[in-house]
Automatic annotation (TrEMBL):
Pfam families: Ins_P5_2-kin (PF06090)
Domain of life the protein comes from: Eukaryota
Cited InterPro entries: Ins_P5_2-kin, IP5_2-K_N_lobe
Enzyme class: transferase
GO MF annotation terms: ATP binding; inositol-1,3,4,5,6-pentakisphosphate 2-kinase activity
GO cellular component, one term: nucleus
Protein keywords: ATP-binding, Kinase, Nucleotide-binding, Transferase
Swiss-Prot/TrEMBL domain comment: The EXKPK motif is conserved in inositol-pentakisphosphate 2-kinases of both family 1 and 2.
Protein family per UniProt: Belongs to the IPK1 type 2 family.
Reaction equations catalysed: 1D-myo-inositol 1,3,4,5,6-pentakisphosphate + ATP = 1D-myo-inositol hexakisphosphate + ADP + H(+)
EC number: 2.7.1.158
Function of the protein: Phosphorylates Ins(1,3,4,5,6)P5 at position 2 to form Ins(1,2,3,4,5,6)P6 (InsP6 or phytate).
Protein name from the UniProt record: Inositol-pentakisphosphate 2-kinase
Amino acid sequence: MLLNETEPSQYFEIPPNWIYRGEGNCNVVLSLPQLGKILRIRKTGRPKSFIGWLVKWLSDILDWLYGKGITEELRDLQFYSTVMRPLVGRKYTSEACQVILNKTEVNTLENQLHKYRSDFRKHKILQYGRASLFDDFAFIPENDYNYLPFILSDDTFAIELKPKQGWRPLSEKHFPVCIYCMHQYLKLEKKKIKVLSKYCPEDLFSGNEGRMLRAIKSLIEVPQNNLRIFKNGNLIYGDHLKTNFSNIVENIFDNGENLEQLIEEFCHLIRKSLTTNFMNVDSTEHCEEKTFCEWNKIIQESSASNALPKNSVLEKILSIQMLDTEGSDYYCKLLQKAQLEDWNYVDMLLDKVTNEHICMKCTIMNLGNNSRSEQEIDLAFIPYLISAIAKDCSLMITLKRIQEDISDNLEIKNIISTNYGHFLVNIGVFDLYPKRLTSIRKHCQRNKEVYKAYLKATSRLSSIENLK
Ligand SMILES: O=P(O)(O)O[C@@H]1[C@@H](OP(=O)(O)O)[C@H](OP(=O)(O)O)[C@H](O)[C@H](OP(=O)(O)O)[C@H]1OP(=O)(O)O
Ligand SMILES: Nc1ncnc2c1ncn2[C@@H]1O[C@H](COP(=O)(O)OP(=O)(O)OP(=O)(O)O)[C@@H](O)[C@H]1O
């Protein structure tokens, strides 16, 4: 069923030619080529015992009867459309539409998906009632380019990045390196990764050309879950698919001459895409209050990140990360004083955001600062929780090569030029659903553990060095 107020209630039938696109911790994603959309289905924990299955079966029936999953999906979708889309920018995000899947269809899909899913993701199964459609960012819609007087390549390449946390509030500045870099050691210890990545999000978000290029090269070397490349919607490069990168750039640039130079050029193309302003209007220009969004700007300007061009996708993501000026320890302590439900803050925030023309950053920071009464304390956590979404979101840079030599000064925003040709570029940001309130505790604990793992590994390394 497509949930649109004017539509009659009916179930959404998944088109038969769906393709498994991938999955993260919370969602499985199918691409639906005919529709140019992806179907994102929420997952839930797989019961571990017979009793667990029985409980799940009963709660599924109750959830279904009372539409719990459907209400939760609608809540998250409204949060996405009302809060996250204006923050990130409509240009960089997709429209979304909730759909209802038939219970039998979900069961059948679960079985069909088995052969595509990685074993380490199989501890979760599909959840009934929670699915939505988004634009498929692995492609560029024909309407976006059929007005252009150029011949474009048939192939479309999409470079997916999960950039992670690019900035630390003052209270986290004492860590010797960034959270991502320390986390590498914990992941290695827990055998979640085989080799350490040299990628550093603070390099990527620095806006400094040399540091950004180093970050992109490090992602190519060790992609983990931070880099994936798709050709016409099919994964061609990623953590479990480390094909020869030279073949990929050869393919993207349709040129096989100087492969090393092509890799260098690819990194520049990615850097330029991440730092180009693809937006048409600046949303903060409409802010009358100019209190907290200005403050947010001052924080940005006082840090190295002001090197990121305004309204480029990285600047957008970083400025949302910067809404948390306190750090997880502060919020963890605040949370100790209260017994709160995980998702109440979402509805409370949606109740407050009624006027489309208000500045979202000012609203969020005002709520974060002024909500200390017992009834409104949930709202105090909002700057942190929204910042956390921006620290874990992903983006896709989608490219189509222009098959002819065009003049450099075309002034078309979404055309990026390289020494090996011009590209039509589109950028989409996704994974912008709310995080549960108690993820704050998880982050505090994670920060402690990653710091410990970092110290353990680096002191071991330095004692080995000393022995030499
Ligand atoms: O805590 P982190 O930094 O490890 O991030 C988690 C991610 O791990 P990563 O380090 O990127 O491999 C994790 O990704 P993976 O499952 O490792 O691919 C999720 O994105 C998780 O978010 P959520 O539980 O799905 O809402 C992420 O949790 P949140 O931090 O967003 O709560
Ligand atoms: N709008 C989109 N267009 C194209 N591909 C998408 C889109 N949304 C998601 N995907 C693909 O599906 C995969 C899983 O989606 P997503 O990252 O939203 O899952 P998740 O479980 O919420 O992830 P995480 O573990 O990071 O929280 C992505 O890695 C990406 O390859």
